[in-house]
Structures are given as structure tokens and as C-alpha cells.
Write a structure and sequence with these properties.
Length: about 120
């Protein structure tokens, strides 16, 4: 099969635009490094009471939430497939947060454990 036709073609075009956009990878690196710095400054410990315990438990959500908030800033670059609306920007930068968490999990635990954590193979 030489060409992709049907419903998969537009989805693959969006995926290619998304992964090829350099701002996505800058976002992934910035959110990942920023998270590491914040983690070292706060020094959370699992099982602690108070806000540090909540910080520890919700840590994987932080890059995604921050990415979505950054995406609401008007005028930031994003692929054309994400449109010009604020929601498209929030989704694009949120996806950078998701990739940041996935990259961190792969670096820390390995590919198999990261895939399991994200709901993949059991």
C-alpha cells in the first residue's frame, strides 16, 4: 500500500505536524527541567501531610496543567492543525506536558514500566 487514504490520512497529517513542530520539543524540555528544579526546591516526600504530600501525589499532573495554562497565552506558536483558538493552544502545550511526563517515566523506570503506567500493556 503506497498511500494512506480514508480517515487515517488527515489524522496522520496532524500527527506529523504535531511531532515535527520544534516548539513542542522546547516545551517538553522546559517543563521537564522546570519540574526537576521545583522538585529539588520543594523537596516533597511521599506520605507527608499537608501541601508537600499533595504536591508529591499530584506531581505528574503539574507539567500538563502548566502546559495548558501556557497555551492560553495569545500569540504563542503552534501547528496550523491546532487552529487559532485558545483551546487549540492549550491542547498543544498540554500535549507537551504529557510528553514531558512520558519522557521522565521512560528515563527513570524504562519503556515497559512507562507504557504500563500510561495504561498500555499489562
Amino acid at each position: 500500500m503506497d498511500t494512506i487514504t480514508g480517515a487515517a490520512a488527515p489524522a496522520l497529517a496532524v500527527l506529523a505536524q504535531w511531532l515535527a513542530h520544534p516548539v513542542l520539543w522546547v516545551c517538553v524540555l522546559t517543563l521537564g527541567l522546570g519540574g526537576e528544579v521545583a522538585k529539588r526546591l520543594v523537596g516533597p516526600t511521599a506520605g507527608k501531610r499537608g501541601w508537600r504530600g499533595v504536591y508529591e501525589v499530584t506531581m505528574p499532573l503539574h507539567p500538563m496543567a502548566l502546559g495548558a495554562l501556557v497555551g492560553l497565552v495569545p500569540g504563542l506558536p503552534r501547528p496550523a492543525a491546532f487552529g487559532t483558538e485558545m483551546a487549540g493552544g492549550a491542547l498543544f502545550y498540554l500535549s507537551g506536558g504529557v510528553l514531558s511526563v512520558l519522557a521522565y517515566d521512560i528515563a527513570k523506570r524504562g519503556v515497559v514500566a512507562a507504557v504500563k503506567r500510561f495504561g498500555g500493556v499489562s
